[in-house]
Amino acid sequence: MIDSHIHADTRPFEDFEAMAVSGIREAVTCAHDPLEMLSSDVVMAHFRRILKVDPHRAALNGLKLHTALGVHPRAIPHDYMKVLEELPELLSDPSVVAVGEIGLDSGSETEMNVFIEQLRIADETDRRVIVHTPRSGKEEITPLIADLLSQHIDERRAVIEHVNMDVIPLLIESDFMLGLTVQPEKLTPQEAVQILKEYGTDRFVLNSDMSSSPSDPLSVPRTVHRMRISGFGEGDIMRVSEKNIRKFLKIKN
Ligand SMILES: [Zn+2]
């Protein structure tokens, strides 16, 4: 199994062992907003941590981490151009599999500028993008995010994260990959299973988005367990818990 979206820098060492014991072999750790990003230096220190420190902590527990780097919409420093100038070079690190997580949270003009700039970088450097959608205002902001994505990048190169029944009907006709975040304040495993029953497994990836918010490091295995009880076959289970994200991010087996 692969947990397709986590924030390893906020989690204790023991979580990685619990994940590995539960059958998660790999995870994608994404840049986010763990600190108040007062300047580009803070963002760069955060990038260094998720590139170097967390993959090592996870590897000691048998969990392989891949990295996504980008400026999260809640983590935009006043001098964000300095980060964007460095980003193409940083993306060349072999552990980096995507630009992310990027996107919109409040939908402000600055957020839009930073998002579009990073979509350009992803397009130029041939990277996939991991895209955040907000908790509040999801129904209003998600169509805006989808429009900006469609204007700037091939839809097949973006995963739109934290989707729920409010926005899936708007996105299901697109070519985006869709991330089901199973987390105490987002989807329960049962709700994720219900969505997969209704829409099939081709377009979805599972993740915990575990961070300092209420989280469950075992979201993916728990949802897989729930799928099995509900009668899903191994092909469907493999697709949402590993194959789709592996193919999407071009992660070798
Ligand atoms: Zn996240």
UniProtKB/TrEMBL annotation:
Highest rank taxon of the organism: Archaea
Listed transmembrane segments: none
Any Pfam family: TatD_DNase
SUPFAM superfamilies membership: Metallo-dependent hydrolases (SSF51556)
Keyword check for tRNA processing: no
Membership in a protein family: Belongs to the metallo-dependent hydrolases superfamily.
Molecular-function GO terms, alphabetical: hydrolase activity, acting on ester bonds; metal ion binding
Alphabetic keyword roster: Hydrolase, Metal-binding
Name under which the protein is recorded: TatD family hydrolase
Organism: Methanothermobacter wolfeii
